[in-house]
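Re: your question from the hallway

Yes, I did run it. Sequences:
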Amino acid sequence: MARERRRRRRRRDSGTGPGAPDGPAQLAPRQVRNRFPPISVFDPDELDKLHIASLRVLEEVGMDFLHPEALDILARGGAEVDRETCRVRLDRGLVEQAISTAPAEFALGSRNPERRLVFGGNAVNFGSVASAPYCSDLDGGRRAGSFDDFCNLLRLVQSLNIVHLSSGYPVEPQDLPPETRHLDCIRAFVTLTDKPYHAYSLGRTRMLDAIELTKIARGLDDDGLMREPSLFSVVNTSSPLRLDGPMIEGVIELARRNQPVAITPFTLSGAMSPVTLAGALVQQNAEALAGIAFVQMVNPGAPVIYGGFTSNVDMRSGSPAFGTPEYTRAALAGGQLARRYDLPYRSSNVNAANAVDAQAAYESEMSLWGAVMGHANLVMHGAGWMEGGLTASFEKLVMDADLLQMMAETMAPITVDEASLGLDTIAEVGPGGHFFGTAHTLERYQTAFYEPLVSDWRNYEAWQEAGAPDTARRARDLVKRLLAGYETPPLDPGIREALDDFVERRKREGGAQAA
Amino acid sequence: MARERRRRRRRRDSGTGPGAPDGPAQLAPRQVRNRFPPISVFDPDELDKLHIASLRVLEEVGMDFLHPEALDILARGGAEVDRETCRVRLDRGLVEQAISTAPAEFALGSRNPERRLVFGGNAVNFGSVASAPYCSDLDGGRRAGSFDDFCNLLRLVQSLNIVHLSSGYPVEPQDLPPETRHLDCIRAFVTLTDKPYHAYSLGRTRMLDAIELTKIARGLDDDGLMREPSLFSVVNTSSPLRLDGPMIEGVIELARRNQPVAITPFTLSGAMSPVTLAGALVQQNAEALAGIAFVQMVNPGAPVIYGGFTSNVDMRSGSPAFGTPEYTRAALAGGQLARRYDLPYRSSNVNAANAVDAQAAYESEMSLWGAVMGHANLVMHGAGWMEGGLTASFEKLVMDADLLQMMAETMAPITVDEASLGLDTIAEVGPGGHFFGTAHTLERYQTAFYEPLVSDWRNYEAWQEAGAPDTARRARDLVKRLLAGYETPPLDPGIREALDDFVERRKREGGAQAA
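Structure:
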């Protein structure tokens, strides 16, 4: 029965769009758009109060930029800079003027032009899990991330149409030496996937390497890269009110080259920001605006994303919590703030569960609805994140793909025309009949409804007979099918060679050792 | 550690509101309000097309009302009635005129005045799972429902503040004889809980018994009951376009007495309604409007709820699916239609999963967000539904309570005032500090954040050490604690005796045997 199902799915697949040849039916690749208006949590007066409070923070308290080059740029830009303490105060007029040059929308490309993504407006892009030190699957258990796991997670990202981009290392390849790890990882992004990707802002050297590899991958020179944003970085502030040196170097190199940066304060309410949600959001907004103003001082007009990552801690244990009511409201609020400044918005799909169980799913759904209804343009950690970010789960990754596809389909319009209103078929069937065999049904039934990746709609008896597989176990099977069916996206052998040459040369030079 | 946690929870409980004395901290009982604007799926023109198409269905195709008394009422009301086929055609002016007398808002009471619920506007009320033939818990497995299970599920309903009402038999007590089952069940609603409840429209006799028991419970005479709606019924049409005799008898008896009825077409797209979502909604709307018009012809001004339950079938197997993208959009669309007619709206928290696992949670969340953002005033099956309604799960019931509480908290406003904006504490902590020990934090941390019922935020190692309990297992523990801590709500002994006398007399008479 399972085999028959798979066969039928495969048949359907050819009609719905590319996926692994042996993989499940998927939604065709597409730029997801959110047709619903965003949900706002604040009235205009409250929003104004938040805005003004965060400008007062930057004016009266200030923010530390821990890099002399940043202090130069900020001083030239008109900020009040204390070079000894690295404290920077920005008056409200300066902040408002600086952020006004940031574009409301931009595109991010990759070596496959069909993977180009728009950030801004009602566009929604789902990224993979990023930055987990551990990974897990049901068969192998939980373990420190390796480059092997890293590559397999990338293969899943490439195989799933709804995962639009790699938003960081899905897992940290702890078996690779830190000084050359970035070289292997960026090369893997380019060769194992053809989707846009992220480079960490961990100092100038690593970022310049990522930029060079990207230019090789896309066959672009410096001017070409300026015209076509092709890699991005998420930069977390060290809340409260601090931006670290390595982050700053990454921001400067990207902004100069017109590559997008998402400034994301990590404002855990009760720990790194006030215990009140409004206070945490004031601080998030202050830090985000300061970072965005800085990017614009580096290069006015450079693409930038307003990032929100406010959540709360468990006040008993200090553990961070995700997908909570506070988190979801903060995700909606962050979107409202980003819209106030007409900036693209970044949110996340996060949870604090230790197993791919109900909690993992409901906290993820709470995050996702917050992200989507807050009109996030970039949903980081869209697929695979577990345990507050400590673990990338193979099963969660493919299960999340189902959640993301469902969200994309939920946002799709309902067709309303004479044929879909169905008056004729309602009249034909009449009271007491059924619609299974009507022409109206037969013409449409194969594509009428969303077909899930891991949901199981068999009745209880059939499900029992099949061994009562829960969602995580079904996801495990899908992981195997996707990895078995994975196909490396085609790449010009000359480019492949140039990438390898660059990586080998930089490894010989010691990678980021000197940095 | 678990014990210490429980002790702390108990301590906190006294501050947050009633719950079982040994139970977890809960949100205090309250009338939940949804401050967010609803999400609309149709533009005004599309909504109009749906409206007009459904009126054309009632005018041109008609609907079967399978009861002579209904045909009399409809004929007197101005409908075109064919008594032989029971086919009723209502012209659009008649429908619009009839539904115009239905109130936009009403209240439903019970014997505890604090449990009174408002239906309409932005009020949200969460009902228990209803009408499942089976029930399950992790220890006892899946089994045919018994009265014992029925009573234990009611005890959970009573113990959980966020479950506002019993929206039907949580499980069918299959060990009770059908002709007197309703007597035991309604008495159990009254004695084991003090929350509003539902009576099935399964013929006149059963409904009259439920009405008498309710009058006894509340100490009301006929006039008093007219003034204070105290029990309600959900009436499903037999889609397509049919209302059965036993349902009609229930509707007539309730509407005459000013008790609310929720008319809910069960329009499974592709089976009992067109395979197109627009077509299914046209049919849902036609059936709901016909039922509502009928209620208003029985008693103009009687409270009525517009029910939506459109979902899709798995077109491979014919199995119904729930919490799908189609389901969620239909839930939003149903709300938009109900608002067009200024009527209270009913939706549901449903899923098709066979285990209390990730699928159960994500399909439930999709349903819940559809219900809440569609501005449902009554969320049926809010807690406990599994397997497309075949099973009531004890663990799912308490886990859903967590989902419902999270939803209620997500809809709560974020306080924005000088203290919550936290400028002073941000200045006090400054760049690079932390907020754990500040006065601002210490004054608020105990109640700042939502405290979950079953979510587990321990780190992986602590969770492993505790036996790695997944959400369902944690829910099992909570079920036991709630049942152990359950307290029967106080009831005047005279009322108790009168209820027993009535039940015994009616049992001696054979219950609904004659009906």
